Amino acid sequence: MSDPTRAIHHAAAEGYTTTADNYVRGRPDYPPGVADWLRDALGLRAGRTALDLGAGTGKFTPRLVATGASVIAVEPVAQMRAKLSAALPQVRALAGTAEAIPLPDASVDAVVCAQAFHWFATANALAEIHRVLKPGGKLGLVWNMRDARVGWVAQLDQIVNRVEGDTPRYYTGAWRKAFPFDGLGPLHEQHFSHGHTGSPEDVIVMRVRSTSFVAALPEAERAEIDAQVRALIAATPELSGKEVVTVPYETAAFYTVKEN
């Protein structure tokens, strides 16, 4: 069987292969309002089937399971997929990519891409998503973003963004160029505010380490990023010396409906 990581961006293939543990530890959860969005906007409930596309370690997958729908996860990076399977053995986890989804035509009621669509925002991926959706099925796109309206968060983003290279990112908006797409309706958008609470090491340092292009850097450059992040924590009164801190986040959720 071919290696699906050969078909994905080098930052994802290299970074996520080495950072699965940091991803589990450092990534924030999703706000409670997402449960209502999955039910009301995407129509997920018992008797429906949802595909978690680009599922990673399964950070979002429990939200789909909680709807009562049958959940299938597709993830190209074996190390990430193994974490998902260990945590959620009831979920069918498959190797695959957005351009080659290992499912039959018209087989799922919803495809959800959480923290993932910017990696594969292409016409080929949307055509494949359209193929596996049932008529009237829905594509949901979800992203968690640090709230850069807060001064120290903006500084943290500057440290991270300086080393992003050619890595696709949500905040650039480049993913929107994939729309409109023939056969999918307009995008509907909703936002939720929440916080990620924990030790500075977990919710700030490990979160930065879990960023694909940071994890893919040479060791010396990763150490320099760590040092810059820790220096920011030490210089920020609301973070310095604190055992528990809260990083403000905003979640953006979009959906579109298969029209034909």
Question: Can you describe what's shown?
Answer:
This protein is α/β, with parallel strands linked by helices and 260 residues long. It has helices at 10-18, 20-26, 33-40, 61-65, 78-87, 123-132, 151-161, 200-209, 212-215, 219-235; strands at residues 49-53, 70-74, 92-94, 108-114, 133-146, 188-198, 245-257. It has a domain at 4-146 and 168-194 and 248-257: 3-Layer(aba) Sandwich (Rossmann fold). The chain contains 10 helices and 7 strands. A 7-stranded mixed β-sheet has the order 3-2-1-4-5-7-6. Strand 1, helix 4 and strand 2 (70-74) form a beta-alpha-beta unit. Helix 2 crosses helix 8, helix 7 (151-161) runs antiparallel to helix 10 and helix 8 (200-209) runs antiparallel to helix 10. The mean pLDDT is 92.
List the helices and strands and how they pair.
Elements: H1 10-18, H2 20-26, H3 33-40, E1 49-53, H4 61-65, E2 70-74, H5 78-87, E3 92-94, E4 108-114, H6 123-132, E5 133-146, H7 151-161, E6 188-198, H8 200-209, H9 212-215, H10 219-235, E7 245-257
Parallel strand pairs: 1-2, 1-4, 2-3, 4-5
Antiparallel strand pairs: 5-7, 6-7
Helix pairs in contact: 2-8, 7-10, 8-10
What features would you highlight for this structure?
methyltransferase, Rossmann fold, 260 residues, SAM-dependent_MTases_sf, globular, Methyltransferase domain-containing protein, Methyltransf_11, seven-stranded mixed beta sheet
Radius of gyration: 18 Å
CATH architecture classification of the domain at 4-146 and 168-194 and 248-257 = 3-Layer(aba) Sandwich
Query: What value does the average pLDDT take?
Result: 92
Number of helices: 10
Helix content: 25-40%
Q: How would you characterize the largest beta sheet?
A: 7 strands, mixed
Strand order of the largest sheet: 3-2-1-4-5-7-6
Per CATH, what is the topology of the domain at 4-146 and 168-194 and 248-257? Rossmann fold
Order of helices and strands, N to C? HHHEHEHEEHEHEHHHE
CATH H level of the domain at 4-146 and 168-194 and 248-257: which superfamily? Vaccinia Virus protein VP39
Alpha-beta content class: alpha/beta
| Terminal Cα span | 32 Å
Quick one: overall form?
A: globular
CATH C-level category of the domain at 4-146 and 168-194 and 248-257: Alpha Beta
Q: Total number of β-strand segments?
A: 7
Give the percentage of residues in beta strands. Answer: 15-25%
Uncertain runs: none
